[in-house]
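Note to self: the last two entries modelled the partners one at a time, which told us nothing about the interface. This time every component goes in together.
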Amino acid sequence: MTTTAANPGITVAVWPGCVPRLVNQGAEDFLDYRAEGGYREMPDADQFLAEVQRSGLLGRGGAGFPLAIKLASVRDSVARRGADAVIIANGEEGEPTSIKDRWLLRNRPHLVLDGLRLAAAVAGATRGYVYVSDPAAARSIEAALSEVGAETLGLTISVYTVNAGYVAGEETAAVRAINGGPAKPTDKPPRPYQKGVAQRPTLVSNVETLANLPYLARHGATAFRSEGTDSSPGTFLATVSGGGRPPVLYELPHGAVLADLLGVHGIPANQVRGVLMGGYFAGLLNPEALEVTLDHQTLRAGGSGLGCGAISVLTDDCPVAVAASVLAYFGRENAGQCGSCFNGTAAMAAVAEALRDQVATTEDVGRLQRWAGVLPGRGACGTLDGATKVAASLLTQFPELVALHLAGACDTCRGGAFRGERPYAIEEVPA
Amino acid sequence: MKIRLDRTLCDGFGFCAKHAPGHFSLDDWGYASMTGDGSVAPDDEADVKRALMDCPVHAIIEIDEQDDDV
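The predicted structure of the combined assembly is written out below.
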């Protein structure tokens, strides 16, 4: 049988010369997946953990945290507390400009489930959840689960569906939702590896991260490292949107140059006014930063980030107006829990919108600068940090444009400024 | 002594920063965050305990070395 087809509006492409590990053409079924070497015999848990460590696999949900450390933390917690672990495959893709997790769940459900069972074996998990908001992804996983026997998976796995939301994909929001609460983050500690679902040690891992494990189990860490950079090994999925072109989902090696990716996407560097990185989470880059390589270390060093690999290109739109819309989105879509976040995002959005409308004062911009400096780390989750990155990057990457707006001299914004509820979002025809 | 602050509960009363300014800072709107990792030196325990007891929404919680609530 086949699973739900991919959104027809999304084109999938592989980087020139790169052998794909994650994307394929058309939705997979169980027999094909197993015939191609999937659901192999389970490796020894200790040896596989060592292999994950050697591979240097970083989480693909946005934070880029080493999976081996997460796995080891859950194992230690299991040993200390004497309770079996729980594993959550996180496919609740909160970033509006990202499509990769939904694509994987809809088209490669067995790859995700195979990765989930491998991670579960290492973590000592006896209960698993695939946590999603996309109905087509949920149907795809349900259908895949009906094809695979429990003895193959080694644990009970069910699909948990929540309403979509920017904060719903945060790891503590997933735990809280499955525990019966709202899909909103909790403050840390405790972290999920300490106390998660039903108070048990819980591994929350992005579905793309898990989808890398079958390749690793089959080919080993050396082969895994044959693509990518030393500090960001392997390939990753990038959703490229904006620039007046249809969005495309790419699989490419870490370390590729941003300008080259945009070139493959059909956007010449001289048309780029700015780039929104990591969904809405890692702020804006100016056109001078296009030679940057797409890996966690390089982008972090420049104050940006790869995040979930979503990249939106601004060609005609003014970066000030885009920043204002993204900050307004954070003002609406934050969890409404932490005072620093619901006040801070609204305040930063108000200044950015005034700047877009060319009525802001130097004092307003000074306040924005101060908030961008003092507010990071003051929320229970990363939402406020993401908003401060947008504000900070606007001020540091586009100082001339900020000055132009203070002087009321931006012709682009004067002639009807860019406004978007969800700028560059991958909006879909319901599947 | 070790503590955690649940910022989803904080309602910005500000007693914590008044009693233990070395451990809590307030933002422009009066909402608190911890300035450190929650570890409290013996000399500061009395101030931090007062902050904990005075927080009207019980957003400050004492935890053990395993981060479990005490």
